[in-house]
Known about the structure:
single chain; 458 residues
Amino acid sequence: MKLKRQKKKNRFTTTYILAGGFLLLIILGTLLLRLPFASATGISVPWSDALFTATTSVCVTGLVTVPTFSTWSFFGQVIILILIQLGGLGVVTFTILFFQIIGKKISLRESQLIKDAYNLDTTNGMGNLVRKIFIGTWIIEGIGALLYCFVFVPEYGVAGIWKSIFNSVSAFCNAGIDILGPSSLIPYQGNVAVNLVTMALIILGGIGFPIWFLTVEKIKTHKKSGISIRRTIKSLPLYAKAVLFMTAVLIFAGALIIFILEFSNERTIGNLPLGKKILAALFQSVTTRTAGFCSIPQSGLRRCTIIVCCILMFIGGSPSGTAGGIKTTTFMILMASMISAVSERSNTEFFNRKINAETVRKATAIFTLNFAVMLASLLAFCAVQPGAFEDCLYEVISAIGTVGLSRDLTSELTLSGKIIIVVTMYLGRIGPISLSLFFNTKKHVNLIQYPEENIPVG
């Protein structure tokens, strides 16, 4: 009995630490944002708005009940940015970095936490991995901020430097919170530089840290050995191929569909010249991958486009990155499983590789859990929040996918509506991680085998 309890305790250690870390960070952020000097007016913001802002920052969602640029003082904005960075890279990652700075040796348990948090196969070199993640993150965010400065400094003066830094970190962490104004990036929908930099940061942050290092390693190998690019790509592991392939397919397929559906819609891209229409459609497709910035009014989208955007938001980014959603690899596995079932193949296959049955089960469980949470949240939200159904659906899926896009409903949320969205954002941030970690433990051996029977489906 004692051994059984110990196994159960170890089984949930990582999940509890990650979930508890995010929760403690939200509570601390709420307390700091409630301070009078965190507000631009010097008067403490209501508890509900402080809690909502702290949650959306830690969960890198981007839904805001009060305007970030005008509600919070510089101190408040700094707190929000720190919460975004902590939430994007993970509490455990920052803790281990702190241990390294003070000279504390990383234990096996802490290495296991990092391994689980980033879905890695080994605990070797965890300290080096954490350093590489932070160095890579800060280099990319620094380059993004520098490029933003060429646009924002001429427009805002010295204040443009802070706006550039804030926007770069928020974009890389897929948070979607900005301090530019009440309309997100809509005023910059024709600015190629702002759009391209933002999209690049979103994709790099959402693609997953292991993919960075693997890609860099393959590029070095390609240069040293002279192996062709085609062979280099073929040598990538299935995980990397799946992430890169699904990311490209979802972005460009989503952009094409949005471009076609919104082509003549005067409320979004209908009045734009062809080049800007393409840019706006591409940006909308990228930002629905859990980023939350918008260059076109979301309230003006057609119903058919809303459905497309909801699907993209629900799928989200890739594992081990800063994005949310069920992840591109989960979606890929489900599609591969469906194709295998329809074509009556005995195995689930992708890129001439067999995907094991346990992985398919995990993908199915993650999708089912997220879908169930989404339906439950939608039901509760519709019961307490006035508004059109498509607006409520968009809000809830944006929260569960930690996206941050809204059809102008967030600022009108009731207290009950705020609480439901706060809980949904939190579950959206930790839900898939917790579930995957739950399955990523020592396999349970069934001591009792039951008779097998078939049940008709379909």
